[in-house]
Amino acid sequence: MQDRPSVALKLVAQERAIMAEAYLRAEIEARATDEAIEALYQERYVDAEPEDEVRAAHILVASEELAKDLKAQLDGGVDFAALAAEHGTDGTASRGGDLGWFVYSEMAPEFANAAFAMEPGTIDAPVKTNFGWHLIKLDERRVRQAPQIEEVQAELLREMVQQVQVDMVAELREGAVISFADPQPPEQSIRDDAMLDSAD
């Protein structure tokens, strides 16, 4: 069976794949070291400029008219979480519209502009984004604290592995001469021994 051209080509392809995987693993081990991850953590979190974050809730609805009606009810003392549960159209409705903590860049610009201009304990006028109309209630504001490296180590490692792969491909392409057969054989030739034999 190993003498069949289609089988021989598949064996060569498998051997190359195994070698490529081994090479990639060796490069990742050499480049994505604990020291490299520590350096990325320092750059990303410790040495970075402090960033403000807020905790807010919202009610997302489809129309400005409904948003204004809900705002009037809120101004009259109706509970925000109850209205969010009843009228909210996104996944936060089941938890009273709570969005948790977020920084400016994690939200749509129109939403972020409104939320970060608010004072804790206030509810803003309806804000339109591509998702619909939002009523925003700002709960708290603080400066985001850097996480412990153990909390983000897996994420940083994944990011570094992806970057190693990108860098390796760029480096290999830079030093390689790539040529293609002209005309290129059809894809089905990999399964056609007669065609492969004739190509020889």
Can you tag this structure with a few keywords?
51% helix; 4-stranded antiparallel sheet; Chitinase A, domain 3; 200 residues
Describe the protein in words.
The chain has two domains: 5-45 and 151-199, no CATH class; 52-143, Chitinase A, domain 3. The chain is 51% helix and 16% strand. The protein has helices at residues 5-31, 34-46, 64-75, 80-87, 109-117, 149-174, 193-199; strands spanning 52-61, 98-103, 127-129, 132-143. Strands 2-1-4-3 form a four-stranded antiparallel β-sheet, with helices on both faces. α2 (34-46) packs across α6. The chain is elongated.
What percent of the residues sit in helical stretches (DSSP H or I)?
40-55%
Write the CATH architecture name of the largest domain.
Answer: Roll
Range of strand content: 15-25%
Distance between the termini: 18 Å
The helix/strand series, from N terminus to C terminus, equals: HHEHHEHEEHH
Q: Care to count the β-strands? A: 4
Radius of gyration of CA atoms, rounded to a whole number: 28 Å
Write the layout of secondary structure elements.
Layout: H1 5-31, H2 34-46, E1 52-61, H3 64-75, H4 80-87, E2 98-103, H5 109-117, E3 127-129, E4 132-143, H6 149-174, H7 193-199
Antiparallel strand pairs: 1-2, 1-4, 3-4
Helix pairs in contact: 1-6, 2-6
